[in-house]
Design a protein that fits this description.
By secondary structure, this protein is an alpha+beta fold. The protein has two domains: 141 residues, Jelly Rolls (Sandwich); 117 residues, CBS-domain. It is built from 13 helices and 14 strands. The chain has a four-stranded antiparallel beta sheet with strand order 1-8-3-6. It has a four-stranded antiparallel beta sheet with strand order 2-7-4-5, with helices on one face. Strands 9-10-11-12 form a four-stranded mixed beta sheet. Helix 4 crosses helix 5 and helix 6 runs antiparallel to helix 12. The protein is elongated. It starts with a helix and ends with a helix. The C terminus is likely disordered.
C-alpha cells in the first residue's frame, strides 16, 4: 500500500476514496527505468498510461518548428507526466527521458477516465495542467532566439492574446427580449451571436445563429416568433475566457467543445467576444507575413520552405 499511499498524498488523487484507491492500485503497475532512458518522444504513439513518479527524475523536452530539441521542464518525485493523450485524445505534447534511475507507477487510461467520471476534480486538474504545460512549452519555444522567420510565424498564435483580437463592444439583449426582436437585431447589425444579460448586466446566456436555426426555424417558426423570448432559445451559462488568454488556448478550447463564439469576461463585465471569423482574420495576417518573408528569402531552400507554409494557410 506504500506506493498508492504516496499517490493519494498528491493532487488530485488525495480526493479519491479508499475503495477507489485500492481498485486503481490493483489495475496499475510499477516500472523501473535506468538513467537516460527515453520513455517516449514527442512523436511516439501514446502508451495509454499516466505516469506517476515514485522515485527519480524525468526530463521533459520539446522540438521547435526548426527541429531544435529544448528541455522545458523537469518532473520529480510526486509528479506526473504523459497525461495529454489521455485527457485530449491527441499525441504527446513533449518527450520524456529519465535523468537518473526512476520508478514510476503506470496508471492505465480506461480506469483513470472512469474514475474521473466519478471524481471530476481529476479531469479538471489535468485539463488545467495541460493548458499550463502548453503555455510554458510554447513560451520556451517562442523565446528561443534562433527561430527563423517561418518559425517566428508559427510562434505568432502562441504570443497573441484574446485582448488583441476580440470584437467589442459586445451586442447584448435581455432575457425577456422577444425572439423576433433578437433576430432583427442580429440581422441589422450583421452579427452571428448576441449575449443575453440579466437586469444587472451579468451574462446569463448567448443566442447564436445555430440556436436560431435549431430552436426557431426548425420548429414552429411562426409560434416561436410570436411567443418565445431570448431566454427560451439561448444557450445558458456559456463557456467564456478572460482577455489575457492566449489565442491558441481559445482555439483549442473552441474546437474541443464545438463552439463558434466565445464571450470574453473581465471581472464581472463582458469585455468582448471572439469567433471563428476572428481566427480567420489571423490566418490572413499570417499570409501577409509569409509574403513578406518570401521577398526576404535569399536561397531556393528558404523559398521552398515558405511555399510549403503558404499552402497550409
Amino acid at each position: 500500500m506504500t506506493d498508492l499511499k504516496q499517490l493519494r498524498e498528491c493532487e488530485p488523487f488525495n480526493h479519491i476514496s479508499e475503495k477507489a484507491a485500492d481498485e486503481l492500485e490493483a489495475l496499475s503497475r510499477t516500472a523501473v527505468y535506468p538513467a537516460d532512458t527515453v520513455i517516449f518522444t514527442q512523436k511516439s504513439n501514446p502508451s495509454g498510461f499516466l505516469y506517476f513518479i515514485r522515485k527519480g527524475q524525468v526530463e521533459i523536452s520539446a522540438e521547435t518548428s526548426e527541429g531544435v530539441e529544448m528541455v522545458v521542464d523537469y518532473r520529480n518525485i510526486g509528479g506526473f507526466f504523459g497525461w495529454s493523450p489521455i485527457f485530449t485524445g491527441e499525441t504527446y505534447a513533449a518527450g520524456a527521458k529519465t535523468t537518473e534511475e526512476t520508478h514510476c507507477l503506470l496508471i492505465p487510461k480506461e480506469p483513470l477516465l472512469a474514475l474521473a467520471q466519478q471524481y471530476p476534480i481529476i479531469s479538471n486538474y489535468f485539463n488545467k495542467a495541460i493548458y499550463s504545460q502548453i503555455r510554458k512549452l510554447y513560451r520556451e519555444m517562442t523565446e528561443h532566439k534562433s527561430l527563423d522567420p517561418v518559425a517566428q510565424m508559427e510562434a505568432y498564435p502562441f504570443q497573441k492574446r484574446l485582448r488583441e483580437m476580440m470584437s467589442r463592444p459586445v451586442k447584448t439583449c435581455r432575457m425577456n427580449t422577444p425572439v423576433q426582436e433578437v433576430a432583427l437585431k442580429m440581422t441589422e447589425l450583421d452579427i452571428a451571436a448576441i449575449v443575453v444579460c440579466d437586469e444587472n448586466g451579468k451574462m446569463t446566456g448567448i443566442v447564436t445563429e445555430r440556436d436560431m436555426v435549431r430552436k426557431v426555424l426548425a420548429t414552429d417558426t411562426e409560434n416561436c416568433l410570436k411567443h418565445y423570448t431570448a431566454k427560451d432559445v439561448m444557450t445558458p451559462n456559456p463557456y467564456f475566457m478572460t482577455p489575457d488568454t492566449y489565442m491558441y488556448e481559445a482555439a483549442t478550447f473552441m474546437l474541443r467543445h464545438s463552439i463558434r463564439h466565445l464571450p470574453i469576461i473581465e471581472g464581472s463585465s463582458i469585455a468582448g467576444i471572439v469567433s471563428i471569423q476572428d481566427l480567420m482574420k489571423f490566418r490572413s495576417q499570417k499570409s501577409m507575413l509569409l509574403v513578406g518573408s518570401a521577398k526576404e528569402a535569399e536561397t531556393i531552400e528558404e523559398l521552398t520552405k515558405i511555399r510549403g507554409e503558404i499552402f497550409k494557410v
